[in-house]
Amino acid sequence: MAKLLKTIYRLRLLVFVFAAYTVAALIERNIEIIDAKRVNSSYFQTVLDNKFQKASASLGEINQLIINKGIDDFISDHAEKYYDLFRSDGIILLAYFHGELKFWNSNILPLQINGLIDESGRKVINPGNGWYAVTSFNPDDSIRLCGLILIKHEYDFENEFLVNDFHPDFKTFSEVELEFIPNGDENIINDPDGEFLFSLIEPFPPVYGTFFALTACFFHSLAIILFLVFLYQSFFLINFRSITGKNLWLVLIILFLLAVRYLMLETGYPQAFKSYSLFQPQHFAKS
Fold first, then answer.
1. Tens digits of per-residue pLDDT, 214-252?
2. What is the H or E stretch that residue 66 is in?
3. Residue 157 and residue 173: Cα distance in Å, rounded?
């Protein structure tokens, strides 16, 4: 036991190298886990599909009530049922009768909403305060029903009350952006008919970059420095029988360091340095 402890003491720098590397690896693993949860397009699609179903079901009910009761009786006797739908699910319902907006369940929309909805082919609109997915149908020439599903708030300025974030049901970081031009097959969101709505674009650098990446960089750097110190000490502490052996050991160390550096360049290790904003190219590029 004493011999083992003595050996560990002699190799204490290598023990510290292993410990620092382990901590850095655990932090990077934590980053990967956060990455997996940061943009979950499958979950996002499922939530949006459910909202489309709820909006369509509500519009169907409203259509039947208007047909059976008339628009005025619907508004006076049944409209209140739908007022909480925006607060709970981010769904806005609009009912037009003979081209005039008669019912809406939220006052959050600006006045120019009519023109935006009337534009052909617009499945996602931004009336000035956020992005909404649109579903609508015209049961007859006199009635037009529209449902707007809040995807993400987007304001000209932010404060403690106005925040550019996704509806909470989507569980998506606010830094994720929406891309409305198809670009590959990654993180694509479709409407219920399977047609493209938008893509979810992950932010870079990641939202956690400043803290996690900096911490991982610190422990990676510590491991590298301690390993170099270990090599330095081993070079001067080993009793070589000849100058040739000492030179050979020096050459082996240099070759080893070159091989390690080559592998780092090929594999991109450590990835934490790429996540930390200090090492992004915009800090070094010249215009």
1. 777 788 888 888 888 887 777 666 666 677 777 787 788
2. helix 41-69
3. 18
